[in-house]
Amino acid sequence: MYEMDKDEIIVPEELPLIPLRDMIIFPNLVVPLFVGRERSINALEAAMKEEHIVALVTQKAAELQEPEIDDLYRLGTAATIMQELKIPDGTAKALVEGLSRIEIIEFTQTTPYFRARIRVLPEQEEKDIEVEALMRNLVAQFERAASLGKPIPQEVLLATANIDEPSRLADFIAFHLNLKIDEKQQIIEAVNARDRLERVSLFLSRELEILEIGSKIQSRVKEQLTKTQKEYFLREQLKAIQQELGASDEQASEIEELRRKIKSAKMPRQVNEKALKELERLAKIPSAAAESAVIRTYLDWLIGVPWQKKSKQKLDLKEAANILDEDHYGLDQVKKRVLEYLAVHQLTEKMKGPILCFVGPPGTGKTSIGKSIARSLGRKFVRISLGGVHDEAEIRGHRRTYVGALPGRIIQAIHQAGTKNPVFMLDEIDKVGTDFRGDPTAALLEVLDPEQNFAFSDHYLEVPFDLSDVIFITTANLLETTPPALRDRMEVIPYVGYTEEEKVQIATKHLIPKQIESHGLNGKHLLIEEGALRKIIREYTREAGVRDLERKIASICRQVARKVVEGEKKRLKITSENIHNYLGPRQFRYGLAEEADEIGVATGLAWTEAGGDVLSVETTILAGKGELTLTGHLGEVMRESAQAAVSYIRSRAEMLKIDKHFYSEYDIHIHVPSGAIPKDGPSAGITIATSLASTLTKRPVKREMAMTGEITLRGRVLPVGGIKEKILAAHRAGIKGIIVPMENEKDIELVPKEVKEELKFFFVDHMDEVLELALTPEKPVKRARELTVKA
Question: What is the mean pLDDT of residues 61-89?
Answer without folding.
Answer: 89
